[in-house]
Amino acid sequence: MPSETAAVGTLDTRKVVVVAYDGAKLMDIAGPLQAFSEANTLARRPAYDVILASEDGATITTDTGVRMETARLDSVTLRGVDTLLVSGGDFRLPPSATASLRTRLAEHVDEPRRLGSICTGAFVLADLGLLDGRRATTHWAFCRQLEREHPLVSVDPDAIFVTSDRIWTSAGVSAGIDMVLAMIESDLSRETALDVARAMVLFLKRPGGQSQFSVELRQQIQDVRGRFDDLHDWVRANLRGDLSVPALAGAAHMSPRNFARVYLRETGESPARAVEKLRLEAARRLLETTRDPVRVVASRTGFGDDERMRRAFVKALGVSPQDYRSRFGLPHQDGLP
Fold it and tell me: Would the pTM of this model clear 0.70, i.e. be above it?
């Protein structure tokens, strides 16, 4: 099997097999296919021969209802495959939906030079034992499930994608494109990857991790019983006030000691950490929907000063408030800051 280094810079056409099945996410398939296709166009040669395959080679129906033709997995000459990627699926699919496919894949996963997953496709690799002892990622909403079902996997919930030797895993949906851009950079050149990113109007390396899209949603998922929903609403309405443990305990009608213990047990995080997250979420919304200066946003959300808010953004999201606004804020208008 050729090494990663040996393959880079050659003019060989690399065969890529994207594995799909009924219920696979359309963008998990289409995003990588488009990126590899753009690489061919911009490299002005067939750098990649991409094949969409399924277990039986039948037409598959994606989660959106779009039907796609596939090749039979066994008919693909896997010994000539450079990269094999397993797409993610409809999140409601039971594990049994891919059980037969996993059995078939087990016969072939040792052969490609590079093996990867997109979104929840990581569960297929994990079920085959391929992620044991490795760092990996998946869609942020399913990282805890991956940790729980596969304790030997070191799950990184913030990574856009992760490489571990020849195995690559990516976060949710669009992150599969980020991963493929990195593959193109490794295989061809940084210039080609940049050209592909520009053609697709993407970052070559997007700033921050997947946590920048999921702060409040993760809060809702963690607080599964909803015990502190009213308290969280109270915090959102009082972000500039006293949000110490005694104040929170008083609002929750509990003693401070009991409140801190129960809150940590129910939500999986400390009250102080939760307050910072709620302030961060409020600041994100103001940066997205207003043109208030950063210092004003920091004051309105209880951070006190813009430097404290900047540190919170960098720690949690991997980007500064200014960078976050440039990506998600209102479009610039002449005459406005």
Answer: no
